[in-house]
Amino acid sequence: MSFNLKFKDIDEERQLNGEEYTINDLIKELGLSAQTVVAKQNGELAIEETRINDGDEIRLVQIIYGG
Fold first, then answer.
1. pTM of the complete model
2. What are 27-57's pLDDT values in tens digits?
3. Could you tell me the pLDDT band of residue 66, with boundaries at 50, 70 and 90?
4. Pairing of strands 57-62, 2-7
5. Other C-beta atoms within 10 Å of 60: how many?
6. Using 50, 70 and 90 to split pLDDT, how confident is the model at 19?
7. Contacts within 8 Å (CB) and 24+ apart, 54-58
8. C-alpha to C-alpha distance for 38 and 40, rounded to whole angstroms
9. Residue range 18-35: average pLDDT?
């Protein structure tokens, strides 16, 4: 079981270990903060608690602050 991760220069297939794996787990694994990225699962916005399923495309988008 696997999913495709896209974030900046990353475009890779990652393995799911069979247990419940969420967007939040992925964000933490990458050393990011949920306050600095937005997740899209198969093209739709996804919240941190969303479970990642086999075959999903997860795209993380960096939030840019400024003024």
1. 0.90
2. 999 999 999 999 999 999 999 999 999 999 9
3. confident
4. parallel
5. 19
6. confident
7. 54/1, 54/2, 54/3, 54/16, 55/2, 55/3, 56/3, 56/4, 57/3, 57/4, 57/6, 58/3, 58/4, 58/5, 58/6, 58/23, 58/26
8. 7
9. 92
Are 59 and 6 in contact by the 8 Å Cβ rule? The answer is yes
Could you tell me if 29 and 37 are in contact, meaning their C-beta atoms sit under 8 angstroms apart? no
pLDDT at residue 67 greater than cutoff 70: no
**Amino acid symbol at 14:** R
CA distance 47 to 27: 11
Answer yes or no: are the C-beta atoms of 39 and 50 closer than 8 Å.
yes
| Identity of the amino acid at 22 | T
**C-beta neighbour count of 6 within 10 angstroms:** 14
β-pair partners for 7: 10
